[in-house]
């Protein structure tokens, strides 16, 4: 039987567990992401969720935090779009947990937030992340040289996107 994965909005109470998880996952995250690893970093990250342009979702399974999914740079009006970021905590990758968590987050973006478009910018060598969005029906839209600065290096990214009307967005946050 598959593990039950849920996503919920991050809270201040998650600080300690998320910091510990990010510290333990630094090697696994490598050059893909640079998550916060101390309380000041958590506070800056969490403050962005209060500004209204970011929804931070904690993915849980097996009684533990297994990853994070962020809907960043949310824009309404004529655009109705967000940029998707996600990562698994060490020890939880490669088991489909984050595929389900991202699927729930995208359904939340479409069904609950009323967004039309979710895009994810992924480094071309991040094969696991590329495979995840492909499984969820994202399509490759383009290539952006030196798109994001991670670990002090401007890194190329591919732009993957999914639209609310690509297929029926199912799920929800449960």
Can you characterise this structure?
This protein has 174 residues and is α+β, with helices and mostly antiparallel strands. It is built from five helices and seven strands. It has helices at residues 15-24, 26-29, 39-50, 97-112, 127-135, and strands at 6-9, 55-61, 64-75, 81-88, 117-122, 139-150, 153-163. A hairpin with a 2-residue loop joins strand 2 and strand 3. The longest helix is centred in the middle third of the chain and has 16 residues, at 97-112. It starts with 5 loop residues before the first strand and ends in an 11-residue tail after the last strand.
User: What ranges have pLDDT less than 50 throughout 5 or more consecutive residues?
Assistant: none
Radius of gyration from CA coordinates = 15 Å
Mean of pLDDT: 92
Instruction: Tell me the fraction of residues in β-strands, as a range.
Output: 25-35%
- Based on Cα principal axes, name the global outline: globular
Question: What's the number of extended β-strand segments?
Answer: 7
Strand order of the largest sheet: 1-2-3-4-5-7-6
N-to-C SSE string, H for helix and E for strand? EHHHEEEHEHEE
Largest pleated sheet:
7 strands, mixed
Please, what is the CATH homologous superfamily? Gcn5-related N-acetyltransferase (GNAT)
Helix/strand-derived class? Answer: alpha+beta
Q: In whole angstroms, how far apart are the ends? A: 17 Å
Task: State the domain count.
Answer: 1
